[in-house]
Amino acid sequence: MEANKTTPEKKTSILFVNKEREPLFSKKNRKLLSDPMDDNNPITVQVLGICSALAITVQLKPAVVMSISVMAVMAASNVIISLLRNLIPNRIRIIVQLVVVASMVILVDQILRAYAYDVSKELSIFIGLIITNCIVMGRLEAFALGNGVWKSFLDGIGNAAGYGLILILVAFFRELLGSGKLFGFQVIPDAIYELGYVNNGLMLLSPMALITVGILIWIQRSRNRTLIEKN
């Protein structure tokens, strides 16, 4: 009789396991997506990935493609490393991470070559350099190795989105003010060009990428004073 009494209790506890689990989009999980967009942005707060912001933001189209590519690589790499985290020996974890990221980058590069060859050619070596991107390797080492698959996936998506947001903003202003175009389409009227705007190539120069990022950092810190470092 005692055995019969204990059996329903065990079944009840098993039935309620799902209810005790954390929801897929709990407050903590939502923060994994939202924090990199503002308070913990990879570029403006962590100051990572500056090379991409300097090199591929002359036009909006390659910046958008680069952002999507990094998001695909980060999400997939985080998931794979999270799945393998208990099987990877500590001494070779960096090598394993590089192999996983390199494989994802090669896959993304081949897809771009097949379906967006012009953009792939324009991005050139910068797609390959995703392998050494500090943001990608940093999240694998700091997060994916110590967290579950779903959280690692959200972390990859969130950090890639935060990175892509800054890239797209910088490219938007550089292409608009530098060449008067967006996605290659003329936006600034010819009447303004006739006044001499056509000679304004300042925003297309590499230093303007850093200056634009600096302005974005200033705007962010003026809005969120907690990000200002204290002496």
| Element-level helix/strand string | HHHHHHHHHHEEHH
What is the total domain count?
A: 1
Backbone shape: globular
Q: Which regions have little confidence, pLDDT < 50, spanning 5+ residues?
A: 1-19
Strand residue percentage: under 5%
Largest sheet: 2 strands, antiparallel
Structural class: mainly alpha
Strand order of the largest sheet: 1-2
Q: Can you describe this structure?
A:
The chain has one domain. It is mainly alpha-helical and 231 residues long. The chain has helices at 2-15, 17-20, 27-34, 50-55, 60-84, 93-115, 117-123, 125-128, 134-142, 149-179, 190-194, 206-223; strands at residues 181-182, 185-186. The chain has a two-stranded antiparallel ribbon with strand order 1-2. The chain is globular. The relative contact order is 0.16. It is 67% helix and 2% strand. Mean pLDDT is 80; it is low at 1-19.
What is the topology?
Blueprint: H1 2-15, H2 17-20, H3 27-34, H4 50-55, H5 60-84, H6 93-115, H7 117-123, H8 125-128, H9 134-142, H10 149-179, E1 181-182, E2 185-186, H11 190-194, H12 206-223
Antiparallel strand pairs: 1-2
Which characteristics define this entry?
231 residues, mainly alpha, two-stranded antiparallel sheet, 12 helices, disordered N terminus
Short description, anyone?
With 231 residues, the protein is mainly alpha-helical. It has helices at residues 2-15, 17-20, 27-34, 50-55, 60-84, 93-115, 117-123, 125-128, 134-142, 149-179, 190-194, 206-223, and strands at 181-182, 185-186. It has one domain.
